[in-house]
Amino acid sequence: MNETGDEEISKVIGEGADKEELLSQFLNNVTQLRKSDDIVAYPAISNDFDTTSLSDYPELEVSSQLLQKIATLNSIVAKLENKPLPKINEASLSKNYKIDYRKSLNYEQLVATVSTNGPVLVIAGAGSGKTRVIVHRLSFLIENGISPNEILLLTFTRRAAKEMISRAEELLQNKLAEKITGGTFHSFANHVLRKYSNLIQLPNNFTIIDTGDSEDTIDLIRTELKFDKTNKSFPKKKRIYEIISSARNRNMTVAQVIENEFTGLIQDIKDIELIFRGYTKYKEISQIFDYDDLMEVLRDKLRDNLDFRKRLQKEYSFVMVDEFQDTNILQKEIVDFIAAEHKNIMVVGDDSQSIYSFRGANYENILRFPETYPDCVIVKIQQNYRSNQSLLNFTNEIVQNAKIGYKKRLYSSNSNVFKPVVKKFYDQELEAEFIVSKVIELRERGIELKNIAVLNRAAWHWTYVELELRKRGIPYITVGGLSFHEKMHIKDLISYLRILVNPYDAVAWHRILKLLPGIGKITASNIVKEVRLNKGKINLGSYQKKKFYHEINELATTFQNACDEKIGVAQKLAIINDYYLPILKSRESDYNVRILDIEVFSDLAVKYDDLQKFLSDFALEPPSKKFGDKTTPLIDESEDKPMTLSTVHSSKGLEWYCVFIPHTLDGLFPSVRAIKNIEEIEEERRLFYVACSRAKEELYITMPSYVNTYNGFLSYPSRFLIEIDKDKYEYLR
Fold first, then answer.
1. Which CA distances in Å does 688 have to 139, 648, 685?
2. Which residue pairs, CB below 8 angstroms and at least 24 apart, start in 408-412?
3. How many angstroms separate the CA atoms of 688 and 133, rounded?
């Protein structure tokens, strides 16, 4: 545990209390925490790699139910491991195509591309060119007379879909591919729910709220139900939202999620269920959808409305899904409903890179695909185009040690020999000094900083590295922290615009009303009730004698001017900005910096003719962090573009010449939270695999000799390293 200073202890024990007694209680609580079941039971003395074995690590607790599930999954996989790769129908390649598919693709990629009839599962190893397969398959379908309007391409970022479709256009040398319906699950849901709103009895002007707004709505209901006044410690909005979202994404009840994962809140189940019901009803009244609603409503409408289902089945006779290992249960069901008629579905993914269970992703979806489609074609793509073979020998070992999933042995024509380097240091400072010294050495060898990354299991793991980079004046960027769309002033502007589209959006009303002096939670709630009764408008007559009358009158006038149908999105935003900037200036001392964000936001709005589309795109595909660059001091980049400090989760899909992975102690990587559960340990293994497989040529894995945390004294190397044959890496002493 970190040392607690006098000031911190003072905060804990309070002023005017019996400090001796309270301090005794405080220290006793700390003692009890150290004895709790959450503390990792490692031996007291750290051993070297030569003498450490897996038997030195705490055993995993595995229930009989979980063992049975793992056995079932491995049985499915085992039946497919020996399934021969299907032969190519030579006649399908005998036509006069614009693209030479044989020349452009390796054999496994070619099989996946030309297998267009019926279900296809493509297991694509890291760096094996899965995007290339999807792009060529899109082109192959169109060259074989399939209308692009019949093709649905679902990805996890809009950028990925846009890139794939754009590359297909380049291959075909025409604009046919732009007619493909491509995008994220959420953007697709938003599109079809609005398009068929009359058929499925939905308002077509619903607004979409992000995670932060969802949490604020839950907090509003939590407050209205007086849970903030209880004597006991009641869970905060973030925890409640996490439980509710987890239940919805995994087809579980709130009670099941709490009983399985939040056992300390079992006594609060009924209260959290009540908040969930209130949250659901509140959104319905306000005509707002959260991210989970988009998936849940689309799945429910496909399941329950036969006409709607048949419309989509007729519209999309070919379905393709990228990163299938990251889908949740709802997304899998949506895909299955749409593909049920034609069964021309291809899913591409890598179970070894399923790392988003915290967002509801279910690794079982890709493993169980052959259960849903027993006659599916299965193609493994194992030729790697990213890393050298020495590196692949190392990462292959990580996959081979997995307890669940498809076995893969990636191979490469890149025969450069550079074994991954593993090194342990006395402390975190020396570890950071080594990493930064290597960065400087790489730069002197001609490796640009932009081709170097430090990937971390958690953002705090890079603290010492960041300090050392600053000390030596090396430019870097961090991938993490507050995103552009999460900034307070941007969320304010979004709220004003949401009200223009949906005047019943109570969440947006609450946010902007509380910006006005004299209006708190209770007054805001009363105004929102009147707005609803007054068909989405402010009844100024009710507030003439209030202190805030001038402010609310100005707000009403602003909305009246911005509602003018003759003006475009940019003009509407300009009216809002004129009203909002004085408020921002009065509230924030750094308003000049925030105005730069608002200018960027205004630049984005200029590209849109439709306000609803602008808001939907912004909610479903927020701008990347690069849009915040204008608000941060720029380092002189005349010599170097910055290197990257990132979490592993944020690094997926990226690659660098050299990757450093620090803090690889058991309890840090894998995280201590995963150590007692085999499924969570396996996800940590996949996370480690993702981190290592981002490197193209050089990989350095480091750790201090110990880290003392509230979870205990951590000194053993990551178990994932101990499992790997020592001839696969170089251990520096």
1. 35, 8, 5
2. 408/123, 408/125, 408/352, 408/380, 408/382, 409/382, 410/125, 410/126, 410/127, 410/128, 410/382, 410/383, 410/384, 411/382, 411/383, 411/384, 412/383, 412/384, 412/385, 412/386, 412/387, 412/388
3. 26
Of 281, 378, 366, give the one whose Cα is nearest residue 325. 366
Residue 129 in tokens: 């060119």
> Cα separation of 190 and 722, whole Å?
47
412 neighbors 719 (Cβ within 8 angstroms): no
Distance (Å, whole) CA 581 – CA 564: 21
Phi-psi category of 388—alpha, beta or left, where left has phi over 0 and alpha has psi -120 to 50?
Answer: beta
Cα–Cα distance measured from residue 335 to residue 11, given in angstroms and rounded to the nearest whole number: 53
Instruction: For the beta carbon of residue 45, count every other beta carbon within 10 angstroms.
Output: 7
At 87 the three-state DSSP class reads coil
pLDDT score of 231: 61
Q: What angle do CA 357, 363, 369 make, to 5 degrees?
A: 150
Tell me: pLDDT of 702 over 70. Answer: yes
First to last CA, the chain: 28
Distances (CA, A) of 99 to 105, 133, 431: 11, 13, 50
Cα–Cα distances in angstroms (integers) from residue 583 to residues 514, 518, 520, 592, 666, in the given order? 11, 13, 16, 13, 49
Identity of the residue numbered 406: Y
Rounded Cα distance, 419 and 412, in Å: 14
Give the residue-averaged pLDDT of 17-38: 50
How many whole angstroms separate alpha carbon 373 and alpha carbon 368?
Answer: 9
Helical H runs in 144-210?
A: 158-172, 185-195
Tell me if 410 sits within 8 A of 392, measured CB to CB: yes
**Strand-pair category, 707-709 with 712-714:** antiparallel
Strand intervals (E) in 323-439: 345-349, 377-381, 421-425
**Cα gap 550→560, rounded to integer Å:** 15
> For 471, phi and psi rounded to 5 degrees?
-60, -35
> Which residue from 132, 292, 142, 704 is spatially nearest to 464, judged by alpha carbons?
704
With tokens 């849940």, the residue in question is 296
Q: What are the pLDDT digits (tens) for 208-221?
A: 888 888 888 898 88
For 314, 536, 552, 727, the CA distances from 566, given in Å and listed in that order, are 37, 20, 24, 71
Question: DSSP label at 710?
Answer: T
Q: What is the mean pLDDT of residues 546-571?
A: 87
Q: How confident is the model at residue 41 (pLDDT cuts 50, 70, 90)?
A: very low
| pTM as predicted | 0.76
Q: For CA atoms 137, 143, 146, 148, give the dihedral sign.
A: positive
40 — pLDDT class (breaks 50, 70, 90): very low
Rounded to whole angstroms, the Cα distance separating 78 from 405 reads 9
Q: In this model, does residue 636 exceed pLDDT 50?
A: no
Count of CB atoms situated within 10 Å of the CB of 60: 15
pLDDT for res 252:
86
709 secondary structure, DSSP code? E
